[in-house]
Amino acid sequence: MKIAVINSGSSSIKFKLFLMPQGKVLAHALVEKIGETNSTITFKYDTNKHVIPSVIKTHHEGLKEINALLKKHEIVEHFCVLDAIAHRVVHGGEYFKDVTIIDEEVIEKIKELIPLAPLHNGANLEGILVSRKKAPDVVQIAVFDTAFHETMPKEAYLYALPYEMYKQHKIRRYGFHGTSHSYIMKETAKNMGTDAKKLNMITLHLGNGSSACAVKNGLSIDTSMGFTPLEGLVMGSRCGDIDPAIPLYMQRELGMSVDEVDALLNKHSGLLGICKDKDLREIEKREDELSKVAIEMMVRRVKKYIGAYAAILGRVDALVFTAGIGENSYTIREKILQNLEIFGIELDKKANRQNAALISKESSKVKIFVIKTDEEFEIAKQSEEFLKNQ
């Protein structure tokens, strides 16, 4: 079964073609800087890699170029011969609690949810609309980031607002990065040689967008992102947790519009807001005070969530780092894990600096892992299982 996975961003397309159930990647394409004059396509298959400069104005052109490359290198003739095209969609609200075949009704619901994930859902929808035009007879599937967190209990997903705000307007915690947290949970269980249903763990997806998740007996019971992907940890350009009165102050006292506040919190805050850069690799090289403060703010927030989730879980079997920062920055991992021995978390600094898969001391009550996430494979796997049961 050949399943293509599309993760469409505002100016990018991530594409992977899988042969399932083997999980073999037949091709991998990344289209970047769509709409700019210096667009690029990175195309990989087998051991080959091509980086192609181009001018790609739209997502339609991007997918057209990917299609042409698949044909040129004799991987598949056209999208139309695929068994399914699966799309990552960030926000499913309360409408979508599982993998879903995309039809007109689903498209309207995804549109309706755009205000709740303004940086993501609109771009995800663009990829869906374009691929439906290119391959109208191929099954199109949506896999939602929010679905994994549908197991949270009411005390975790409700906000302390009048209950009618939830009943009438569905204002609640949804959580995101669900496909990543789900994949990491399963991989951790494999590494520990047991069933995920027997484990309690804290998973940390740390990248430009970041979130923490408390997993109890294989189920998400709490997560740091909320009604939108803005809440929680300090991120590249998103503020994470702040006093909810701050946006009101900005509007009342500073004369900012709703759209201006929205843009500031989502696009101009976080690391970028503190030290004028959101690339942690660059920030770590700098010696200025605000760069150091930005890193400490990010680390402090993660530590707070680890402590909170350890208290909620009662027993923690594993702590797992993933995504760009979590997988690659041993210095950030070391800062986060400093002084957490009270929770039975003991870091092996040598293993950590070697970027080993297991970075905890033998004496540590909590196993600490660094695991590379694979959201696209998780989406392909969920889609394959869904199609088998149809």
UniProtKB/TrEMBL annotation:
It holds the Pfam family Acetate_kinase. Catalyzes the formation of acetyl phosphate from acetate and ATP. Can also catalyze the reverse reaction. ATP binds at K14, H205, L206, G207, N208, G209, D279, L280, R281, G324, I325, G326, E327, N328. GO terms for cellular component: cytoplasm. It comes from Sulfurimonas xiamenensis. This is Acetate kinase. GO terms for biological process: acetate metabolic process; acetyl-CoA biosynthetic process. The active site is at D145 (proton donor/acceptor). CDD domains: ASKHA_NBD_AcK_PK. NCBIfam families: ackA. Mg(2+) binds at N7, E375. The keyword DNA-binding does not apply. Substrate binds at R88. Belongs to the acetokinase family. Homodimer. It is found in: Cytoplasm. Its EC number is 2.7.2.1. The record marks H177, R238 as: Transition state stabilizer. Keywords: ATP-binding, Cytoplasm, Kinase, Magnesium, Metal-binding, Nucleotide-binding, Transferase. Mg(2+). Can also accept Mn(2+). It catalyses: acetate + ATP = acetyl phosphate + ADP. Pathway: Metabolic intermediate biosynthesis; acetyl-CoA biosynthesis; acetyl-CoA from acetate: step 1/2. InterPro entries: Ac/propionate_kinase (IPR004372), Aliphatic_acid_kin_short-chain (IPR000890), Aliphatic_acid_kinase_CS (IPR023865), ATPase_NBD (IPR043129). Its cofactor is Mg(2+); Mn(2+). One of its GO terms (molecular function) is acetate kinase activity.
